[in-house]
Design a protein that fits this description.
This protein is an alpha/beta fold. The protein has helices spanning about 70-75, 90-100, 110-125, 135-145, 155-160, 170-190, and strands at about 25-35, 40-50, 55-60, 105-110, 135. It has a single domain, classed as 2-Layer Sandwich (Nucleotidyltransferase, domain 5), CATH 3.30.420.10. The chain has a five-stranded mixed sheet with strand order 3-2-1-4-5, with helices on both faces. Keywords: Exonuclease, Hydrolase, Nuclease.
């Protein structure tokens, strides 16, 4: 894969890309943050692009959820109505990512992210991607069964157990963490997950 060089001025506060890197990729990890009480009120999408050599590049984009922010949500992820001023709405942002996501296998930590995207697509009447999803919680349970009853397999506990470094509840950071969990699990289990590979014809252009 050709390395994508990006100037520092297009990186956000956690160092994630704000322009899409060159692909294709072995798989893409995806995480979303939401603004309020509805699961489809997405205010941030984060992606972790994993190459065939195991390198991870991360991307993050803010979204105007077109609904009020709940104080609890803003306290959790730090995103507010002021943060998303001028940001695109879900149909615009998701539309720009659609072909890229639809061409790759996706990883999510729990099933919340897929449900949130489905709800947002239903809300706006836009097509949902049909990619194969892998739940990195299930993967972590296979690799580290001893964590059952000892903090579980959430990202916060895996962060402590595996020594991961990331800022929890930022979508780009959580996407990178989910990707890293899968890569570390493959090392523990001694084999790669065969379904985490390009399985569709790539139609997108950069």
């Amino acid at each position: 894969m050709e390395k994508c060089w990006v100037d520092r001025d297009v990186l956000n506060k956690f160092g994630h890309l704000t322009t899409l890197p060159a692909g294709p990729f072995r798989f893409i990890a995806l995480d979303v943050e939401t603004a309020g009480k509805t699961i489809g009120g997405i205010c941030q999408i984060g992606l972790g692009f994993v190459s065939n050599t195991g390198d991870v590049q991360t991307y993050s984009v803010l979204i105007d959820p077109e609904e009020p922010f709940e104080p609890f949500n803003t306290e959790l992820h730090g995103i507010s109505a002021q943060s998303v001023e001028g940001a695109g709405t879900f149909p615009t942002v998701f539309g720009a990512l659609f072909e890229l996501l639809n061409a790759h296998s996706l990883v999510q930590h729990s099933t919340f992210d897929e449900k949130a995207l489905t709800a947002a697509c239903t809300r706006y009447g836009v097509p949902m991607i049909t990619s194969h999803w892998t739940n990195s919680v299930t993967v972590a349970r296979q690799a580290w069964p001893e964590l059952k009853g000892a903090g579980g397999h959430g990202l916060a506990n895996l962060k402590k157990h595996l020594g991961l470094e990331f800022h929890h509840h930022d979508a780009g950071e959580d996407a990178r963490a989910a990707a890293t969990v899968v890569l570390k699990a493959e090392e523990i289990l001694g084999a790669g997950f065969s379904h985490l590979k390009i399985n569709r014809q790539l139609k997108f252009k950069f």
